[in-house]
Design brief:
This protein is mainly alpha-helical. It has one domain (19-505): Up-down Bundle (Growth Hormone, Chain: A). It contains 23 helices and 2 strands. The protein has helices at 28-54, 58-64, 66-74, 87-113, 116-135, 140-168, 174-199, 207-213, 216-228, 233-238, 242-253, 259-273, 278-282, 288-303, 306-311, 313-319, 324-348, 354-379, 390-408, 411-422, 425-457, 460-479, 491-494, and strands spanning 6-12, 19-25. A hairpin with a 6-residue loop joins strand 1 (6-12) and strand 2. Helix 18 (354-379) packs antiparallel against helix 19 (390-408). Residues 1-20 have low confidence and may be disordered. Residues 33-484 form the Major facilitator superfamily (MFS) profile domain.
Length: 507
């Protein structure tokens, strides 16, 4: 078949005294498995996009947040930046991420003991339950409990899917296939924006229920997909199913010559089995570079300000003086840009490398956020009667799209890709757990604080985020090693021991 393009990768063994060949074909099994697994990103992205649109719908606000509704409809003297400042409203968005933070610790266990595949099934079931409860909500408590169940689904899904993709993908295209997760996140956000735009026009004020309930569709896709695909060879071998693991490896690589890669996985699994306390092992000096990079990448990803924009895009555009339909329409535009720009990352990540994409995007994000801050500082006054002219409002949308596009081909996908491919097998599951945990913690912080920060900081909030972009770009320049085209089990030898700073931590 056309998909079965063969290539080989030369690597050095741990002793460095001989070279072996890892053969692999881009088989349909690999492509189909990765597409199905990446629907976990669709599930996550839908929820990221849906909350902002729902919280701008009058009937939803009137039912659950009447104080905010009165402020928007009748608060003529209310500060233009403070119309949506409400802790309960922020808790509706952020509770999901707090639940995901806690769930990821349990997901670390299931990923290691039960496998990547079953963990994805559990993620889908949690998410379906949360979607049903949200759609049927009659009070604030039901809303929050539903969001907590969604959060459990996100925690399990974000734990298992990136690891699954990194382990099943051939080395040469590992970056592109792993970014399928982030591509599906962006598609989920776009779908959510389109659905919000449509349901906001439904007569009778029940459109928000449809928006929240449709979250069950991508969750059902993930559940069915996870039941269909096979688990990764790494997971099977790690759980002692050696023959099955080798058979799966032969099938997904499309060749009988898998012995070198199989022996590498077996050896890595043997070392992993000797680790009795994974979290304690993760803190050892030799694992510190991977841990530090994984943690700071999650912090930096959130402090780009992307989730502040994606969570609250309709709310943000309303704040800037857009009419309600125009704000939802603008959110759809940014969602479409998000999807299209992710294809740039898929194409270039294994060609130009991870560092080049991150550094270029840093410049673009810094400039766009600085322009937004200047425009808002000059033109958007504190009272709601003031706003942007049509031309300047259009410029703000362009700058937001410029920012979103740069994030979509850099920190969005690479924030998940790099941690998932750098941990050795003995710390991979627990390392991914820490990665997801930190990501969810700072996503929760941003989601819970953004509307209050917007109220207090006004336009300078974009100065705050642009300053973080400058810091993170300098960190990439000096501290982030390149990982493109490096076999996943050879990261220590090929990457960390070769880096000018991190090699001092290696035994």
């Amino acid at each position: 078949m056309a998909l079965e393009r063969s290539y080989s990768v030369s690597i050095e063994t741990a002793t460095g005294d001989r070279r072996i060949k890892l053969e692999a074909k881009i088989t349909p099994v690999v492509v189909i498995s990765c597409i199905m697994a990446a629907t976990g990103g669709l599930m996550f992205g839908y929820d990221v996009g849906i909350s902002g649109g729902v919280t701008s719908m009058p009937h939803f606000l009137k039912k659950f947040f009447p104080e905010v509704y009165r402020r928007i409809e009748h608060g003529a003297k209310e500060s233009n930046y403070c119309k949506y400042d409400n802790q309960g409203l922020q808790l509706f968005t952020s509770s999901l991420y707090l639940a995901a933070l806690i769930a990821t610790f349990f997901a670390s266990y299931t990923t290691r003991k039960l496998g990547r595949r079953l963990t994805m099934v559990l993620a889908g079931l949690f998410f379906i339950s949360g979607a049903i409860l949200n759609a049927a909500a009659v009070n604030f408590a039901m809303l929050v409990i539903g969001r907590i169940l969604l959060g459990c689904g996100v925690g399990f899904g974000n734990q298992a899917v990136p690891v699954f993709l990194s382990e099943i993908a051939p080395t040469r295209i590992r970056g592109a296939l792993n970014i399928l997760f982030q591509l599906n996140v962006t598609i989920g956000i776009l779908c959510a924006n389109l659905i919000n735009y449509g349901t906001s026009k439904i007569e009778g004020g029940w459109g928000w229920r449809l928006s929240l309930g449709l979250a069950g569709v991508p969750a059902l896709m993930l559940t069915i997909g996870a039941l269909v695909v096979t688990d990764t060879p790494n997971s099977l071998i790690e759980r002692g199913r050696l023959a099955e693991g080798k058979a799966v490896l032969t099938r997904i690589r499309g060749t009988e010559h898998v012995e070198p890669e199989y022996m590498e996985i077996v050896e890595a699994s043997r070392l992993a089995a000797e680790v009795k306390h994974p979290f304690k092992n993760l803190l050892q000096r030799r694992n510190r570079p991977q841990l530090v990079i994984a943690i700071v990448m999650q912090i930096f990803q959130q402090f780009t300000g992307i989730n502040a924009i994606m969570f609250y895009a309709p709310v943000l555009f309303n704040t800037l003086g857009f009419q309600r339909d125009a704000s939802l329409y603008s959110a759809v535009i940014t969602g479409a840009v998000n999807v299209l720009a992710t294809f740039v990352s898929i194409y270039f990540v294994d060609k130009v490398g991870r560092r080049a994409l991150l550094l270029e995007a840093g410049v673009q994000m810094f400039i766009s956020q600085s322009v937004i801050a200047v425009l808002l500082g000059l033109k958007v006054k504190d009272q709601s009667s003031a706003g942007l002219t049509h031309g300047l409002a259009l410029l703000v949308v362009v700058m937001v799209c410029t920012f979103v596009s740069s994030f979509a081909w850099s920190w969005g996908p690479l924030g998940w890709l790099i941690p998932s491919e750098t941990f050795p097998l003995e710390t991979r599951s627990v390392g991914q757990s820490v990665t997801v945990c930190v990501n969810m913690l700072f996503t929760f912080i941003i989601a819970q604080a953004f509307l209050s920060m917007l109220c207090q900081m006004k336009y300078t909030i974009f100065v705050f985020f642009s300053a973080w972009v400058l810091v993170m770009s300098l960190s990439v320049l000096f501290l982030l090693p390149e990982t493109k085209n490096v076999p996943i089990e050879e990261m220590t030898e090929k990457v960390w021991k070769q880096h000018w700073f991190w090699r001092t931590f290696m035994d």
